[in-house]
Specification:
The chain contains six helices and twelve strands. The chain is globular. The protein is 24% helix and 36% strand. It binds 4-(methylsulfanyl)-2-oxobutanoic acid and nickel (II) ion.
C-alpha cells in the first residue's frame, strides 16, 4: 500500500497521477479509511469475523475476464460515488487504485497490491480504477446480502443520511 495526493493532471485514470506528496496511514485513519496487510487468508478471516462479515465473493477486473465490457466497467468504477455500507476489499492478485476524498475534498490515491485490505467507511466519496497493468483480482466482503449500490455524487446524494452522518462524525 502506498498513498499520495492525486496530481489532478489530465491523462488516463490508470496512470499513477502521483503528486510526489505522500499521505500517511494516520491521515487515512482520520478519514475512517483503514488499511490492513493480510499475508494469509486466516488474517482475512479473523478481520472478517471480528466485524461480522459472513459472506464474500471475488471479482477479476481485466480485459481477459471481462472482454468488451472491460473499458466500460473501468469507467463505471471511476465515477465518484459512495455506499450506505462499509466497503471492504482485499487484493488477491494484481494492483488497483482506490481514490478517496480528503478533509478539503481533494483526492488521495491509495495504491493497493496483493495482500492489501482496505476498509472504506459508509458515506465516503471514492472511486476505483485498475492501473496500467489492467489486472486486479479482488475479494469483496459483505455482512449479509451484497449491498454496494454505488450512489453517484450529486446534490441528492450529498443529502443522504449516511453521507450526513459521515460528514458530521468524521469530517466534523
Ligand atoms: C467499488 O465499489 O468501487 C468497487 O467495488 C470497485 C471494484 S473492487 C476491485
Ligand atoms: Ni465503491
Amino acid at each position: 500500500m502506498r498513498a499520495y495526493w492525486y496530481d489532478n493532471k489530465p491523462g488516463d485514470q490508470r496512470e499513477p497521477h502521483d503528486s510526489g506528496r505522500a499521505v500517511s496511514e494516520e491521515v487515512l485513519a482520520n478519514l475512517g479509511v483503514l488499511y490492513h496487510h493480510c499475508p494469509t487468508i486466516e488474517a482475512v478471516d479473523t478481520l472478517a469475523s471480528a466485524r461480522g462479515y459472513k459472506n464474500r465473493d471475488q471479482v477479476c477486473v481485466s480485459p481477459a475476464t471481462m472482454g468488451d465490457v472491460y473499458e466500460e466497467k473501468v469507467k463505471m468504477f471511476f465515477a465518484e460515488h459512495l455506499h450506505e455500507d462499509e466497503e471492504i476489499r482485499y487484493i488477491l492478485d494484481g494492483e488497483g487504485y482506490f481514490d478517496v476524498r480528503g478533509q478539503e475534498d481533494e483526492w488521495i490515491r491509495i495504491c493497493l497490491n496483493k495482500d492489501d485490505m482496505i476498509i472504506l467507511p459508509a458515506g465516503i466519496y471514492h472511486r476505483f480504477t485498475t492501473n496500467e497493468q489492467n489486472y486486479v483480482k479482488a475479494m469483496r466482503l459483505f455482512q449479509d446480502e451484497p449491498k454496494w449500490t454505488p450512489l453517484n455524487r450529486g446534490a441528492e446524494v450529498d443529502g443522504n443520511p449516511h453521507r450526513k452522518s459521515y460528514v458530521d462524525t468524521v469530517l466534523q
